[in-house]
Amino acid sequence: MAAEDKLVSDVRALAERLVAARASVERRFVGQHAVVEQALAAILSGGHALLVGQPGLGKTMLVDTLSTVLGLASARIQFTPDLMPADILGAEVLDMRPDGTRAFRFIEGPVFTQLLMADEINRASPRTQSALLQAMQEGEVTVSGQHRPLGRPFHVLATQNPIEQEGTYPLPEAQLDRFLVQIDVDYPDRETERAILLATTGTEVGAAHAVLDAGQLIAAQALVRSMPVGEAVVAAILDLVRGARPGAPEAPGWLSDTLVWGPGPRAAQALMLMTRARAALDGRFAPSLDDVAAMAAPVLRHRMALSFAARARGDTVDAVITRLMSARQTSVAA
Asked: Is the pLDDT higher at 334 or at 9?
């Protein structure tokens, strides 16, 4: 079998499993199709996701359901103002041996897992939030001078309450950039909320079941990275990311008065992976320009900062991304 034929066959087989995975997740997390798609795409891309929304919208339940469906060992950390880095990473304790000698023993923290749920991550201090930086980037942590590898695969799915709420701390920019995507979880529409009421308040509540395991997920992530990307998609990603940097040659003139800073190269890498993952979720063996448009906002919205003037005008980051994409589409059509 030719390499291209095998790729198409493998992607189709993966798509069938992903359809079952999505259906299992949506038995519990009802109606939020875009949120589920973005979360699955982030994990297929091998990255971490930040879920932002008001309390009570099901963010924690979504993460718990994903751990079951993907067959991953999971742990949960409830972030609070008094949480310390050692509560995440673990610590060394002094043990007394039977012969009377003493030795240090390392007790692993909850970060030593495959899927870590960081619940309400922005309720902890910046010092504690930063304890996850090395883990998210390198898949290992350094404690007492020793490098300790984490589970494989390793993903952080963090939930965040809006920063305007009481008792929250903004995430450091360096940590925000470690999240592949920011997934905004909004209030459901009336029909979706009706479906949620009927599905969750009866005697039987939908239960999720395992569709993949850790080994199959690792193979799926490798398959996503092997999917070909056309030159038009690469150009669209570069145009969008580079055009979102104030002062860059590709940026429109109005951007300098709108953004303080824009996305770096990691954003382009993330967008490339997310377009491939979305194509795999749809059973296609190569991403399209529609995938770039669908994944642009989740990838870019936490990697851009509005200027004071833009905030005063009522601008939003998502509106800026939409305007940049519209401008590119217009220039391509011309």
From this structure: 9
